[in-house]
Amino acid sequence: MLLSRSDDISIAVTSFFMKACGIWMATNNIEQQCRKIAIAYTTIVILFQGWVLTSAVYFSGEDFNVFLTNLSALLSMLLPTFKTLILFVHRKDLFQLVVYLERKFLQGNYDAHEKAILNGCKHVCAVFICTFSSFVHATEICYNAGPIVANIGRNGTDRVLPFEMYLDIAYCTPYFEITFVLESLFAYHVALCYMCFDNMLCIMNLHVASQFRILQYRLENMREENKEESIENSKKSSSRTADENYAIFKSCVRQHQTLIAYCDKLDDVFSLFSLGQVLIFSTLICIDGYQVVMVSISCDCLLKESMNIAPAMYAAPWTHLPMNKDGRILRKDLILVIMRSRIPCCVTAHGFFPVSMETFTKIMSTAMSYFTLIQGQTADTTSVSEL
User: Fold this and answer.
1) In this predicted model, what pLDDT tens digit does every residue of 26-46 receive, in sequence order?
2) CA 86 to chain CA mean position, Å
3) Helix (H, G, I), strand (E, B) or coil at 348
4) Exposed, middle or buried: residue 165 (CB in 10 Å: 0-12, 13-18, 19+)?
5) For residues 171 and 151, is the Cβ–Cβ distance under 8 A?
6) pLDDT tens, 285-317?
7) Cα(378)–Cα(380) distance, rounded to whole angstroms?
8) Is residue 186 within 8 Å of residue 48, measured between CB atoms?
9) How far apart are CA 347 and CA 296, in angstroms?
10) Taking the complete model, does pTM exceed 0.85, yes or no?
């Protein structure tokens, strides 16, 4: 396929990662065998990581916070597993969408303005894909760097792995190093499955959106387009007959119908994909929300109790003390303590703002604002579609 050799960096990067996951087109027997090996490796990685994280969730039941952390990791691993399974089942339809994108969208006959729209789409795709891929790779590097730093100065069996394996085995050299490398490679492969399918969906959505923009341009400029054709071809009058205009209009309608059919097939392939993503992300938001509440409450307790020193100090029996030298010094020092306690002791977000329940309420308020905005836009879209 020419798509894998495209000068579009977003498509080149995404196709490379999808080949590594085993879900891509093959043009000969060698590539077909490579795809089978890649999908077999992906299956092994998913089963191994699923077993490791499931064991971690099972054996961390006594510590609720550790349990939630391991559960979040398990759900994050289940998401690429679900994506891989769905797209493997619909791989033929996916390949048809990719081929059509290459032959009709990327290699179409465009004028200068339409090429500018397509180039703008390629630029946006490149920014999105490179940014998201960089974030995923940075996360994976940091995840593996943590155990490496923790193992500095350690030796023997007290060293830690990227994923704790609940096996009664002493990981001595070189078995520890082999296990560490294997877990790191498996985690990286899961990260590839996590991002590459999202990248492909993003590329398809943006290219279809650019085709709708091109169609809008053609509909809005039918008269000017026809005038240019008449001057170049036959030097006739700039006005065209109704039949000629209607013929061009029918061409635009056929293009619109084609784009609608493409979107329907895109929905057939990625509908379950998107459902699983929304459900798992919603669960992760709930788990992370609990952890944010827990941290916010504990930080809020620290902040409030440090400020409660002032009323406690004022409630002390200082009024019953005589106004001698020690009594006057005590009253002056009491005022200083009250003034200092009005500045709360707190945990800050690297000095930007104090973490408290007010922080949590602001986060929830912002999240609800976004949710309300999305809900309003969805309602507007539904009402327009009903019309």
Assistant:
1) 888 998 999 999 999 999 999
2) 18
3) strand
4) middle
5) no
6) 777 767 677 777 777 888 888 888 888 888 888
7) 5
8) yes
9) 10
10) no
